[in-house]
Amino acid sequence: MEKKFELDSNSQQLKHFREELRPLLKQTGLDDKASGEVLLALQEALTNIVRHSYGSEGGKIQVDFSEDAGEVRFSIRDFGHKFDLTQVPDPVLPRDKPGGLGIFLIKQLMDRVTYDGSCNPGNLLHLIKLKSSKPV
């Protein structure tokens, strides 16, 4: 199964995206816990794009969804400022100030997170969730 989404970088679009994605995740066979983890990781990634890649400028976000017998994959493409989230170190816990845990959550919730910095302009992020509970 494959599906492409084109979003504007605003919170209302992100809400509609989550609502459209829920039944797709159910069709993949992911259990409720894994589906919730995927939705949270995507929300964090998309929120970071809206805030940090585009800021007040706004722009387009492309999300490609695919799945096969072993995994669910998302490729998230924006056209904003470069930002490689895979290079951000894990935070020191507990945090002494609120916020700053989104990237850490993405890395913890997904089985594989990779960044492709060859896009010009913008960023390409790949998020993979394995259907089995054992990461590769």
Provide structural commentary.
This protein has 136 residues and is an alpha+beta fold. It has a single domain (2-130), classed as Heat Shock Protein 90 (2-Layer Sandwich), CATH 3.30.565.10. Helices cover 36% and strands 26% of the residues. The protein has three helices and five strands. The protein has helices spanning 11-28, 32-54, 102-109; strands at residues 2-8, 60-67, 71-78, 112-116, 123-130. The protein has a five-stranded antiparallel sheet, covered by helices on one side. A hairpin with a 3-residue loop joins strand 2 and strand 3. The model has no long low-confidence stretch (mean pLDDT 88).
Portion of residues in beta strands equals 25-35%
Question: How does the helix and strand content classify structurally?
Answer: alpha+beta
Low-confidence stretches: none
Q: Which bin fits the share of residues in helices?
A: 25-40%
Quick one: CATH superfamily?
A: Histidine kinase-like ATPase, C-terminal domain
Please identify the top-level CATH class.
Answer: Alpha Beta
Outline: globular
Strand order of the largest sheet: 1-2-3-5-4
Average of pLDDT: 88
Q: Element order, helices and strands?
A: EHHEEHEE
Task: Write down the CATH topology.
Answer: Heat Shock Protein 90
Q: For the report, how would you describe the main beta sheet?
A: 5 strands, antiparallel
| CATH architecture group name | 2-Layer Sandwich
Number of separate strands: 5
| Number of helices, counting only DSSP H or I runs of 4 residues or more | 3
Number of domains: 1
